[in-house]
Amino acid sequence: MSDPVTFALVGAGGIAQSYADAFANHPDARLVAVADVRPEAAAAIAGKFGAPAFGSYQELLEKGPRAEAVVICTPPNTHEDITTAFTGRGWHVLCEKPFTLTPSSARRMAAAAHDAGVLLTMASKFRYVEDVTKAKELIASGAIGEVVLWENAFTARVEMGNRWNSNPAIAGGGVLIDNGTHSVDLMRYFLGPLAEVHCVEGKRVQQLSVEDTVRVFVRSAAGVMGSVDLSWSVNKELDWYLNIYGSAGTVQVGWKQSRVKRAGGAWEVFGDGYQKTRAFRAQLANFARAIRGAEPLVITADDAIASVDVVEAAYRSLRASPWTGVINRATYDLTCTPAPVRV
User: Fold this and answer.
1) Do the Cβ atoms of 241 and 257 come closer than 8 Å?
2) Domain range 5-124, its CATH number among 3.30.360.10, 2.30.30.40, 1.25.40.10, 3.40.50.720
3) Using one digit for the tens of pLDDT, what is the confidence trace for 160-182?
4) Whole-structure pTM value
5) Helices (H) and strands (E) in the chain — how many of each?
6) Which one, of 34, 50, 52, lies nearest residue 42 by Cα?
């Protein structure tokens, strides 16, 4: 590729620190400016790269260097305004997940980027994990036969009471939109278009105004069933965050190792697990190379819209309370005559 693509970073919170690690000595992407409403946070990251810091994205646009692209690391209720401000000036945009709060907002963001002739992608780090890509290739090769069942779990005990992620006005919901956006993107990657979704909420342990534990069931357009466990309040202590069961074997994608078992065979290790900085560096590389025309985007604007659509459908299911009640009698007549057995 030619010279590295120049990037600005908007937002200097926790996820921005991961991008700072990924930008360090990156061959395809160079950080040239940082903006945050907390000037000291922006300066802390910018100083590592000898870059200027700004107190708002508006100030960056008016007074900062003219970079080619921007990474948006602010809460999702701000994504549409910030994205359209940058695409309107001809900047390519990598927007952190959750992409935005509503399907209509996602479509406006995509339309604005299209009209400006710039690229727009949604950040979803697991799609850039080498083991995830290898798992998809194994399945496509027929290693486990026809996929029948897909399982995912993103669960951990995290205190969320003082974080914006649990404020529905800012985040759009709770763990379903926060962690679930990763799950939806992975499901679509492995299973293709999703046709139906059913979502139920678990007990609220943290007394939040949003859901902290949910289970999601999905059926793909091809008829494959998927299930997802999401929680901020329990940790399932699993070695594998993806289990994919086929008619002739199983693929497991894990935190420290990934493996495949073909029918009648033994487990074969094919990957060394999840490495966060490596995934972020791969994400930046893909976006930069797509800007240069060297390779296609891994996650397109259409993928981002579809992610928002599925999450929105899951919330509709959650609100519908789709449980069927069980008839509970206070006492049972234990002297009743059993019904005759039919043969």
Assistant:
1) no
2) 3.40.50.720
3) 999 999 999 999 999 999 999 99
4) 0.93
5) 11, 14
6) 34
